[in-house]
Amino acid sequence: MKTFEEIPLYQKAKELCLEVYRINNDQYKKDFGFKDQIQRAAISVMNNIAEGFERGSDKDFIKFLYYSKGSVGEIRSLLNVAVELGYIEFQLYDKLKNDCLDISKQLSNFIKYLSIKS
After folding, report:
1. Closest to 23 in 3D by CA, of 62, 78, 101, 65
2. Which of 46, 73, 87, 110 is the most exposed place for a label (fewest CB within 10 A)?
């Protein structure tokens, strides 16, 4: 792959980010701190994949993939609160949570692949 945009994992992280940004609930929109936190975590997932790729070494890439993995965990934690507060419906919560679990698993596999390759 020549660019990070070609990485399927980056594309999936970007989709998750867009879905988080599209949450459309009046209470959610008014909770600026919460909204900002989950959006920053969502953008961090995709941006750390991009930054790690651009660093040019597997060691650096792995480090940034771990950062992405941490941000995915943060999103899942915030989703637990979002559904309890009624900011999102359970159906959206379940979909986003499963997307996060899938991304986290893919990040783990990618980290393992790069570690063995190095």
Report:
1. 78
2. 73
Element housing 102 (H / E): helix 90-117
**3-class DSSP assignment, residue 20:** helix
pTM: 0.94
Tell me the pLDDT tens digit for each residue of 52-88. 999 999 999 999 999 999 999 999 999 999 999 999 9
Quote the CA–CA distance of 6 and 72 in Å, as a whole number.
Answer: 20
Any idea which residue has 């989703």 for tokens?
79
Domain-wise residue ranges, the chain: 4-117
CATH superfamily to which 4-117 belongs = 23S rRNA-intervening sequence (1.20.1440.60)
- For residue 14, the Cα-to-chain-centroid distance in whole angstroms is 8
Q: Which of 87-94's residues contact partners 24+ apart within 8 Å by CB, and which partners? A: 87/23, 87/25, 87/27, 87/28, 87/31, 87/34, 88/23, 88/25, 88/28, 92/23
CB 68 within 8 A of CB 45: yes
